[in-house]
Amino acid sequence: MNFFQVNSNCNGCLACLQNCPANAIDVQDDGKKRKLRHNMARCARCGNCWRVCPQDAVEFQYMLQNRWDEVISLDLEHCSVCGEPIYTTAFGDTLTEKLGKPEAPVCERHKPAFTLKVKAHFIGHE
Amino acid sequence: MIVGDIKPIEEIILSISGYEKILIVGCGSCVSVCLSGGDREVQMLAQELNRKVYHGAEPSPITVDVILRQCELDLIQSYHDLPEGTDAVISLACGAGVQTLADAFDPLPVIPALNTTFLGASFEPGIWQEMCRGCGDCLLTYTGGICPVARCAKSLLNGPCGGSNGRSCEINPDVPCAWGQIYQRLSRQNKLHLIHEVQKPKDWRSGGAAGPRSRKRTGIAGSPGFQREGEKEGHSSNQR
Predict the structure, then answer these.
(1) Which of A33, A64, A95 is the last residue in one of the domains?
(2) Cβ contact, residue pair A42, B43, below 8 Å
(3) Which whole-number Å values give the CA distances from A43 to A37, B27, B72, B102, B138, in the listed order?
(4) How far apart are CA B115 and CA B105, in angstroms?
(5) Coil, strand or helix: which one is A29?
(6) Which residues of chain B lie closer than 8 angstroms to A23, CB-CB?
(7) Around A10, how many Cα atoms within 13 Å sit in the side-chain half-sphere?
(8) Which residues of A8-25 are buried (b: 16+ CB within 10 A; e: fewer)?
(9) What three-state secondary structure class fits B202?
(10) What does DSSP say about strands B110-112 and B88-91: parallel, antiparallel, or unpaired?
(11) Are A53 and A15 within 8 A, CB to CB?
(12) Are residues A55 and A81 in the same domain?
């Protein structure tokens, strides 16, 4: 879904284009079609397009919508004791690279218990 | 937002005399919105200079660019290159943007094409009004959300003065009396007792009278006390 949206009232008069201070709206008359394009990198979100539109066609609320777009999806590592997600696999790799040895994936809460468990296993006492 | 007015074209032409390849840089933030330094004004200025100074030379000795915010050094340094052979830059940003650009492109001359005028707001399309002087000690709690420092011609802290007729200021009948407005607003808020409290003389040190102001915020990458591994010291000699 685009942030900049116009509804079916739009009649292509180009008032928005003429009044955009950032030149973020463009028109392409392509054969039998007039196409309006919007450039989010240029847009200053000033709302002039919405202000001047004689058709009330600019749905500016989408520009102000508190919406999250997913930018990346990464594999997670979980605490080996309680299963709580702690960091991504890629972060774990960075950690291993920086520490020079693999770090057991344990959350802050279980780190002391895990250390004691490991000590008990290898050294034989708490 | 920061409001600016483009300088007279004669002044801009004078300031670029002797330079052969010019880059004009607009700013995509405040001055874009207040119709003084965005892409539209950059294009218009380029056209005018091409016509009046370079007489339509081909190829044009002028290139144009717009930076999202000219007041952020690392953004400029990371994402904006100078076209080869550029010998001067014209900036349509506010004074903060011009100076940041001058630092980013040092020692290239960066010439302002805008007069930074005030911190303002727009109450109707195409009109911006001064609202704030950045005094560093906001009084709006006591004045019904109307700033007497910026909006009273005398910046009175205890008003109105004798030049007010309650509605307009003596300097111009079209300028509303800020203290008249404050009175009306406080009256609507049932807080007229606030206007009877005498405000002490303002300490202007927070408003710049004690020298240039700066703020340090911690906790973000690059902020004081936060140094990434292998990160070098600041970009230029005047950074701290």
Answers:
(1) A64
(2) no
(3) 12, 12, 18, 25, 31
(4) 21
(5) strand
(6) 38-40, 43
(7) 17
(8) eebebeebbbebbbbbbb
(9) coil
(10) parallel
(11) yes
(12) no
For chain B positions 37-66, those within 8 Å of chain A (CB to CB) are 38-40, 43, 66
Tokens of B141: 């709690």
Enumerate the residues of chain B whose CB falls inside 8 A of the CB of residue A21: 32-33, 35, 38-40
Digit-by-digit pLDDT tens for chain B (240 residues) are 999 999 999 999 999 999 999 999 999 999 999 999 999 999 999 999 999 998 888 888 999 999 999 999 999 999 998 999 999 999 999 999 999 999 999 999 999 999 999 999 999 889 999 999 999 999 999 999 999 999 999 999 999 999 999 899 999 999 999 999 999 999 999 999 999 999 999 999 999 999 999 988 887 777 776 666 555 554 443 443
The answer to whether position A71 is within a domain reads no
Q: What is the pLDDT of residue B23?
A: 97
Which residues from A are below 8 Å from B66, CB to CB?
22, 42
The CB-based long-range contact list for B58-61 (8 Å cut-off, 24+ gap) reads: B61/B20, B61/B21, B61/B22
Is residue A23 domain-resident?
yes
| The domain boundary residue, chosen from A19, A40, A64 | A64
Residue A90 sits in the same domain as residue A57: no
Among all residues of chain A, which has the CA nearest to that of B122?
A: A46
In chain A, what are the helix, strand and coil shares in percent, each to the nearest 5? Answer: 35, 15, 50
Contact A60, A47 (CB under 8 A): yes
**How many angstroms separate the first and last alpha carbons of chain A?**
57
Number of structural domains in chain A = 2
Mean pLDDT by 10 residues, chain A (126 residues): 92 96 95 96 94 96 90 95 94 92 86 76 68
**Nearest Cα to B71, choosing from B43, B39, B103?**
B103
In the block, residue with structure tokens 């991504």 = A88
Residue A100, domain extent: 76-124
Look up residue B32 and give its amino acid. Answer: S
